[in-house]
Write a structure and sequence with these properties.
The chain folds into 3 domains: 64 residues, no CATH class; 126 residues, DNA Polymerase III, Chain A, domain 2 (Roll); 164 residues, DNA Polymerase III, Chain A, domain 2 (Roll). It is 21% helix and 31% strand. β10 and β11 form a beta hairpin. By secondary structure, it is an alpha+beta fold. The strands form 5 sheets. It has a 9-stranded antiparallel sheet. A 4-stranded mixed sheet has the order 3-2-1-23, with no helix packed on it. A 4-stranded antiparallel sheet has the order 4-11-10-9, with no helix packed on it. 30% of the residues are buried. The protein contains 8 helices and 23 strands. The radius of gyration is 24 Å and the shape is elongated. The longest helix is centred in the C-terminal third of the chain and has 16 residues. The C terminus is likely disordered.
Length: 386
């Protein structure tokens, strides 16, 4: 029998159960206690001393999003891996944050999965930034768009898996419809691809550069945090000046500056949103290379198998009063008419003392603590599905 239940409601219910970490989920049978329980299609859930009967379409309302994901749980699923589980988890965590948040751009709310020439490429874009990661891959070619909300939960789940295999399947009778299939030892995930065409992202990645700089992201994150504390509003632009073997980060109002040792080639200066810079540094990690064309063109952050394009902010002194900035046009990655998706400049907001304290704590944590070693956690007992 097939059952449809609301994902969020069911997850909340499972979390509320106590008494055992083994949950048994089966269709209710004619042997159950009352005729009322079997008159309609119901799902029987047993956990320790708790027993419940869930109606078909439980927790599904008018506002429930129409997203579909097939999940199969099995204690003896044989997986022939074509990717590392931790490798895939880290790759997803580097692209999912750079998807669009606006509902009027559904294609940019998705991550593009594309397999070609022995590589799995995952791409995301939000109009201002474009992230791309490539992994060696053994599998059939294909591509599919998967909504970022479907992928967020699986990022942490993959860290508990030992083996993973990624592939594509055709969905339904449509020749163009594709599904993404992700197999682990216990769980098989299958997401139906979203409709729409992802932008031609290759054209958005700059190729010819005039300035190059390589530096440590940990030192740079500490510098960004210190400049954020000095800022009076949430929109804290940061000027990057490259040359003479160092990268200088400074606030446009000359309240603060930090010099970072770096390998440089050429000279250049560019301004970008401080929060975008912090996001880029965290996504890249370790040593990163920043490449510039000029102060008005997209910049490119690169680390092994990872590229991140970020649009700069304009720094026109003649048209912009001191202390104010104007954002550049976003990366042209929209698939809908420009008049429906034109971004607006957010109003400046004051930074609270709590936010400043958070920035200080973040900088101190980076200084005092090394990145913890990952330990493979033991998998919990599987959910049994009959």
């Amino acid at each position: 029998m097939d059952f449809t239940i609301g994902r969020k409601g069911f997850l909340t219910y499972i979390k509320s159960l106590g008494g055992s970490n083994v949950v048994k989920v089966v269709p209710s049978s004619n042997g159950d206690a009352s005729g009322l329980r079997v008159a309609d299609k119901r799902l029987k859930v047993v956990c320790g001393a708790n027993t419940s009967y869930l109606d078909d379409m439980a927790w599904v309302g008018e506002k429930t999003p129409l997203t579909l994901c097939d999940v199969r749980v099995s204690p003896s699923n044989t997986v022939k891996p074509n990717l590392g589980a931790l490798e895939l988890s880290e790759a997803l965590s580097r692209v999912v944050p750079f998807t669009a948040k606006e509902d009027n751009r559904p294609v940019l709310q998705c991550v593009l999965f594309k397999v070609a020439d022995g590589k799995l490429t995952m791409v995301s874009a939000d109009g201002y930034r474009l992230a791309m990661v490539k992994l060696d891959f053994d599998g059939d070619e294909g591509q599919v768009l998967i909504n970022r909300d479907e992928l967020r939960g699986v990022i942490s789940a993959l860290r508990r898996a030992y083996r993973v295999r990624v592939g594509f399947e055709k969905s339904g009778e449509s020749l163009d419809g594709m599904s993404l299939v992700l197999d682990t030892e216990l769980i098989r995930y299958k997401w139906r691809g979203a409709d729409g065409n992802f932008p031609e992202y290759e054209k958005l990645i700059p190729a010819d550069f005039n300035t190059f700089v390589s530096f440590d992201t940990n030192e740079a994150i500490r510098a960004v945090s210190s400049l954020k504390v000095l800022s009076d509003n949430k929109l804290y632009p940061i000027d990057l000046t490259i040359g003479n073997g160092k990268l200088t980060m400074s606030s446009p109002d000359e309240k603060g500056q930090a010099d970072i040792p770096a390998d440089t080639q050429g000279d250049g200066k560019i301004r970008l949103d401080g929060s975008y810079l912090a996001d880029a540094l965290r996504a890249c990690g370790g040593m990163v290379e920043l490449k510039l064309v000029d102060s008005k063109s997209p910049m490119l952050f690169t680390s092994p198998d990872y590229d991140l394009v970020v649009m700069p902010m304009f720094a026109g002194e003649s048209q912009t009063p001191k202390g104010e900035t104007e954002t550049a046009e976003p990366v042209k990655a929209e698939t809908e008419p420009a008049e429906n998706t034109e971004p607006t400049e957010p109003e400046a907001e004051m930074v609270s003392e709590a936010e400043k304290a958070e920035a200080v704590a973040e900088a101190e944590a980076i200084t005092k603590a090394d990145k913890p070693k990952r330990k493979r956690s033991k998998a919990k007992e599987p959910v049994a599905v009959a």
